[in-house]
Every structure is written in structure tokens, then in C-alpha cells.
Amino acid sequence: MALWIEAVPYHIDRDGNARIISIPKVHMGDFRKNANRVTVLELLNAKSEKCLSRKELKEKLEKKYIPIKPRSGKAKQSLTYGSFNSLTQDLLEWGLIEQRPYKESKKEVEYHITPDGQFTLQFIKV
Asked: I need a labelling partner for 30 at 20 to 30 A (CA). Which of 51, 104, 105, 121 fits?
């Protein structure tokens, strides 16, 4: 066991070049409880700009949405704004995505995947 307090880990190669080692602030067990979290990161990471507007992200996620608590019956559950907000809020709190203003709009925002989010996505896929 080791004690780690507010440290920033680095990898220093043989030439003396330092590179920060990214350590996400999320427990993998918590992250894996909802497969839609992985989908959000995949959608953001698939774009060359690594970002999507809130509206675009919700539309794309609705097509791939997996209900966590499926209801009985044959009716397909859709992604509600409450569920979408909860998903994005968790990812924001864990530092896996960032929220920024979208273009010139005062209301619309866009989401960007962070380096920690990219690392987490790679870790999940291993």
C-alpha cells in the first residue's frame, strides 16, 4: 500500500524528457456500472476535434442508449434529459470530459473528451 497525496506522476525517458502520467479520478467499478458512460467517451473520441455540441451528443447517444434499469414490457426506453444530465455530470466531476460554450451561443455548450477521458477509454478497451 502507498500513500499518495496531491502528487503529479511523471515518466522520464532515457533522454531526460518528462511526460505527465495521467491518472483518472474515477474508480473503474463505478465507471463500469453504466455502459452509456463508455459510449459518451467513444462518441467524443471518434470526432477529430474530440468534441460535440450538447444537442449532437444527445442525438447520437439516443441511438446507442442502453437502459440501466429496464422496465417490463416491450416499449423501448428512450434517453431522457435527466438521464443525459446525470451521465454528463458524472463524467464532468471525474474530469473525463469538459464543458465549454458552443460557438457564440450563451445557452448551448459542447463537450470535449479530456486526456484522462482518453486514457480511461483505452484502459476500458484493454
From this structure: 51
